[in-house]
Amino acid sequence: QVQLVESGGGLVLAGGSLRLSCAASGRTFSSSAMGWFRQAPGKERVFVAYITTNGGHTYYADSVKGRFTISRDNAKNTAYLQMNSLKPEDTAVYYCAASRFGDLISSAPSKADFGSWGQGTQVTVSS
């Protein structure tokens, strides 16, 4: 199992940017597809973005498409989420996750597809 630690969250004004990082340790990072999810207060944890094991394909929720970019550096065992043009509705705790079995079939994976999770990092966007 891979251990994950997120960082980079914080408070930002609407229209601003943040870059989240997810540092991995444990079993081989490069064999895990990586995802980002978020959970707003009182709501379910939902899919944000996903990147395949070699970084060749990325997928996004419609709500963040064109504003967020997921990437990874397998040499550094780290995944990233670049968030631009942030909106108040992006306020949530953001979690990174590693897939259970390599690349996924679905372009909109569920929480069940991921076996390892970080502790989350708070992102707050003020208007």
Give the secondary structure arrangement, pairings included.
Layout: E1 2-7, E2 10-13, E3 18-26, E4 34-39, E5 45-51, E6 58-60, E7 68-73, E8 78-83, E9 92-99, E10 114-117, E11 121-126
Parallel strand pairs: 2-11
Antiparallel strand pairs: 1-3, 3-8, 4-5, 4-9, 5-6, 7-8, 9-10, 9-11
- What's the helix count? 0
Please mark out the parts with pLDDT under 50 across 5 or more consecutive residues, or reply none: none
What is the CA-atom radius of gyration, in angstroms?
13 Å
The biggest sheet amounts to: 7 strands, mixed
Distance from N terminus to C terminus (CA atoms, Å) equals 39 Å
* Secondary-structure class: mainly beta
Beta percentage is over 45%
Shape: globular
Along the chain, the helix and strand elements come as EEEEEEEEEEE
What is the β-strand count? Answer: 11
| Residue-averaged pLDDT | 95
Helix coverage percent: under 10%
Give short descriptive properties of this protein.
seven-stranded mixed sheet, 0% helix, single chain, 51% strand
